[in-house]
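We store sequence, tokenised fold; for instance:
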Amino acid sequence: MSYINAFEEQLANKIASGEDKDAIVRWVSNKILESFKNGVAYGRNGKRERKALPSPSDIPTVPQA
């Protein structure tokens, strides 16, 4: 089961159980934060190559009329 499918199932269960809305919002926020942190950590481990941004001198300019 994919992460999204598991998330949808857990969220549906929380809604169906009548759990407090504030508790569901906190749970969703924590899940999003956890996913973001995992993505940042994945990028730091060198598994994805990040392209360097061009320096300002490498960006072509448009002549002013």
In short: The mean pLDDT is 80. The two ends are 58 Å apart (CA to CA). Residues 21-44 form the longest helix (24 residues). Residues 36 and 51 are 20 Å apart (CA to CA).
